[in-house]
Design goal:
Layout lengths: L14 E14 L2 E13 L4 E9 L2 H14 L1 E3 L12 E5 L2 E7 L8 E2 L2 H10 L4 E5 L6 H13 L6
Parallel strand pairs: 7-8
Antiparallel strand pairs: 1-2, 2-3, 3-4, 5-6, 6-8
Length: 158
Amino acid sequence: MPRPNRPQRPKSEYEQKLIDLRRVARVVAGGRRFTFRAALVIGNLKGDVGFGLGKAADTSQSIEKALRDAKKHMISVPLTENGSIPHEVSAKYASARVILKPSRVGKEKGLVAGGAPRVVLALAGVKNASAKILSHGKNKINNARATMEAIRSLKTKK
């Protein structure tokens, strides 16, 4: 039940998913100073997706900063009519390696992916594809950025 004197916040056009929230420490003269780092993926489920990082003294401020950063770094995904990607693509970011494969026509199995690539592809609106993290790294931020690089290198016929 909405409160009568509280203004309603407008609903965002983007879905968002927090993939990482960490407390990070910086050593200063008096001891340790703690801040929070948030990694966020946003997408409209229709082909636009963005990834952002934010750091602040408070968790909600770091999430807001990550949201602003993700909106700044939005890219569009070329989708096929069956909700897949047009062709196979792989990418590397730092130590993370990711490969994305489209689903074969008539063999739709849904989105077969794990970790950060699953979140990025799902929020981009990809319904039928598979993704595999080829590196042994568990770094979610690098895996998400490698997936974004792979999506950025997708091409379509004009």
